[in-house]
Design brief:
Arc Repressor Mutant, subunit A; two-stranded antiparallel ribbon; 3-stranded mixed sheet; Dna Ligase, domain 1; 4 helices; globular; homodimer; DNA-binding; alpha+beta; 7 strands
Chain lengths: 147, 147
DNA sequence: ATGAGATCAAGAATTATTCTAAATAAGGAA
DNA sequence: TTCCTTATTTAGAATAATTCTTGATCTCAT
């Protein structure tokens, strides 16, 4: 009886275009609701609570589709599974070596991340990913752990 | 009859310390001789030419040991296999989207790579990895490919 | 030479991700 | 609506990078 009946809609964002299916909506909402940079597996677990029949392959498909459309970002820190986040501002990622949390680190308002680097003449940068590791503010202020 | 007979020596570098065994020497030389950021598999192929009996597991072990010791760096661009390089200067990596080449991009002499980022107050950065994608100078100057 | 500990080799095991094929769902045209 | 075409989903197999395991081998200090 209301607009909720329209489960489909088409989104035009960034480079791509895609249909917001039920599954993609669920996956996207999972990312929006808990912004802790989950892996595909973690997204899958959370998505299943909302839509028990969803499959892991679909979660991968959805994340991939949305990443290509530019709606979510893939985050690679360290060598483990790719993580995902819906933060579209230019930002880097900081992995705390102690607690494992992944923090977003925004690009300063007027800054240019490539400026510090001696780029080869004529190269064009389409994409830049920055991964930092260290101690987050909380862990850095804690005394050294005996574990 | 000469010093070459001493195949063992101990290196103290950066954070770690390790024995330069025959295998590690070969793996390290492979990295020094062709600085094209090979994957572990590629290192293995090249190492086998010099030491046919070397095993893939050993190549992984050697790369790991040397990475921990700080003698080589692990390079993660995109989602594929980790690459390795013996360049110890602070530098970023640039993957050409067309030719697939990986270029080293040095940090500018006095620059600070974290300066562009709004680091959370109190965080300490131990490690920073920058991966860029785009077109290298050569490919950027070429007309668009029809493939 | 001997013993302790490090390193190596071979292959099995793990894990993230991609692929395949068949079933289902969606949007447009008649 | 009903039919048609195409996109999407699903489940499970396949792939690929990496790690683990175990026993053999090597190195160094005694």
């Amino acid at each position: 009886m209301n607009h909720e009946d329209h489960q489909e809609e088409t989104l035009h964002v960034g480079s791509g275009e895609f249909r917001m299916t039920k599954q993609r909506r669920v996956v996207y909402d999972v990312l929006l609701d808990q912004r802790d940079h989950p892996t595909a597996q973690e997204v899958y677990s959370r998505a299943k609570r909302r839509m028990p029949g969803i499959s892991l392959a679909t979660v991968y498909n959805c994340l991939d589709t949305m990443a290509q459309a530019g709606v979510v970002k893939q985050v690679n820190v360290a060598r483990d599974a790719t993580r995902f986040c819906p933060n579209l501002r230019p930002h880097a990622h900081f992995l705390c070596a102690r607690c494992g949390e992944v923090l977003d680190v925004d690009l300063k308002p007027t800054a240019d991340a490539t400026l510090a680097w001696a780029m080869p003449e004529g190269a064009s940068v389409e994409h830049l990913e920055v991964a930092m590791r260290g101690l987050c503010p909380t862990c850095a202020s804690q005394p050294a752990q005996l574990v």
